[in-house]
Amino acid sequence: MTSFRMTTQLNRSQILDFLREHQVLTLAVAGPYAAAVFYAVDDELNLYFVTDSATRHGAALSRESSVAGTIQRDRQNWQEIRGVQWTGQCARLTGAERQAGWELYLKRFAFAGAPELGPAFAKVDLWKITPDWIRLTDNGQGFGHKVEWTR
Q1: pLDDT exceeds 60 at position 8
Q2: Which residues make Cβ contacts (< 8 Å) with residue 42, sequence separation at least 6?
Q3: Whole-model pTM?
Q4: What is the pLDDT of residue 39?
Q5: Scanning 42, 44, 84, 145, which has the fewest C-beta atoms within 10 Å of its C-beta?
């Protein structure tokens, strides 16, 4: 029988590796409401995504900056569950910060800069999630194994 254990030590690199392995996060905003978005991550664990402010989640983010979400692998059985939960603040980027975030996003999702899509992507908003707490659950390390990070 596998025992339950919880680790609450800082392990930023383990979490960053996980975030870089995946590309879709579930964003929970006011409502209740959640949306799946493609994301890019920087070295500081900030998450970047694009969405129009006219979408339901974009409009909610324009009113309330507190967010939460999850990122996990598809098709897992319970012994292999590996994923993160997080909370943080979200802001629409402008100016130089938007340009830097957009370059990071395009590095991960080159299709967003393609001639047929580039003009449409140029019109949507780029958002940055600054997590204040992340929990990585990895049952492959033992049932209930968790690593937490706090900004």
Answers
A1: no
A2: 48, 104
A3: 0.85
A4: 95
A5: 44
User: Residues 6 or more apart from 148 whose CB is under 8 A from it?
Assistant: 7, 8, 9, 10, 133, 134, 135, 136
- The one-letter code for the residue type at 113 is G
Q: Which residues pair with 35 in a beta bridge?
A: 27
**What span, in angstroms and rounded, lies between the C-alpha atoms of 129 and 92?**
9
Q: Is the dihedral of CA 65, 104, 106, 13 positive or negative?
A: negative
Whether the CB-CB separation of 17 and 41 falls below 8 Å is answered with no
**Distance between CA 39 and CA 67 in Å, rounded?**
15
pLDDT in tens, 77-99: 777 788 899 999 999 999 999 99
- Report the CATH superfamily, name and number, of domain 12-150: Electron Transport, Fmn-binding Protein; Chain A (2.30.110.10)
**Which pLDDT score is estimated for 6?**
47
